[in-house]
Design a protein that fits this description.
globular; Rossmann fold; alpha/beta; 8 strands; eight-stranded mixed sheet
Length: 295
């Protein structure tokens, strides 16, 4: 009896690129219409570009030139002996933009990709024309219990150095989970997650716990939009709204969905993402005034 082939999504062309002095990463590319703005997609923690954005590629590619890279340690991203640092991911993204000669770009960051996008603007403002920050925050561990939980990931990363790779994967996946309830794609999701360097991924969780942009996010001087996932149980909507309030003139677009809505319900997520991109590429800024708060 023939077995059914494993399900895989339809993906745009991808290739490995050597970034001088940094390492080899992997990028997906869609050409978009002639003269279209370039959008750089920056994925979230434990994911890869494909896991985060595979349901969004074709829709975005109709209006924009699209690039999506794997962050270091994630998917087919750069492998390094150095501890994971968010600023290195931002520098990798800047090096990719320079290598391809496509700047300035609209940086679209989802979850952990939000800090990467924000740091890209802060460290390399010449390559960023706008920011779209989705399901993310200025800081992720403001409470003592949260700081302890994120710090524990650093300990797990140290422990991961001493065990075989397969055991690292089992340890990390048991701690983090695959973050999907869609059984039809589960096999592909697990295979994609097996591409990760789990030591680096755990270090990335620790880095997220130490990230705090509250002292400088108000300096953002490019058009910005925040896409708020209003039923998010990973990054609380109140934190997402606080990020929006902290960026001068940032537009807010709400999505009735949880942290995985970009995958589980793209029909809800994509209209908000497209609206955010139109606002940013048009250079629009939101008027000053009160914004909704979540309790």
């Amino acid at each position: 009896m023939d077995e059914r082939p494993p399900w895989t999504p339809s993906l745009p062309p991808g290739r490995s690129i050597e970034l001088a002095g940094r390492g080899r990463t992997f990028v997906r590319e869609l050409g978009g219409p002639p003269g279209a703005p370039t959008v750089l997609l920056l994925h979230g923690w434990t994911a890869s570009a494909d896991l985060n954005w595979f349901r969004c590629y074709s829709s975005l590619g109709r209006d924009y030139r699209v690039l999506a890279l794997d962050h270091r340690g994630h998917g087919r991203g750069i492998r390094s002996r150095r501890p994971f640092r968010l600023r290195d991911c931002a520098d990798d993204a800047a090096a990719l933009v320079d290598e391809l000669g496509v700047g300035p770009v609209v940086a679209v960051g989802y979850s952990m990709g939000g800090p990467v996008a924000s740091l890209l603007w802060r460290r390399h403002p010449e390559v960023v024309r706008g920011l779209v920050l989705c399901a993310t925050a200025r800081s992720f561990a403001s409470r003592p219990q949260e700081r302890v939980s994120f710090a524990a990931l650093g300990g797990l990363a140290l422990a991961a150095r001493a065990v075989p790779d397969a055991m690292r994967r089992r340890l990390a996946q048991r701690f983090i989970g695959t973050r999907t309830d869609d059984q039809s794609i589960e096999g592909w999701v697990v295979d994609e997650m097996h591409r990760n360097d789990w030591k680096a991924v755990l270090e990335a969780g620790n880095a997220l716990g130490r990230y705090d942009a509250r002292g400088w996010i108000g300096e953002v001087d490019v058009p910005a939009a925040v896409v708020v996932t209003t039923r998010d149980g990973v990054v609380h909507p109140a934190r997402q709204q606080a990020l929006a309030r902290g960026i001068p003139g940032a537009s807010v677009f709400e999505v009735d969905g949880d942290h995985t809505v970009c995958v589980t319900n793209p029909g809800r997520f994509l209209p908000a993402l497209h609206s955010a991109l139109r606002a940013v590429t048009a250079g629009r800024r939101a008027p000053e005034g009160p914004r909704p708060a979540f309790v």
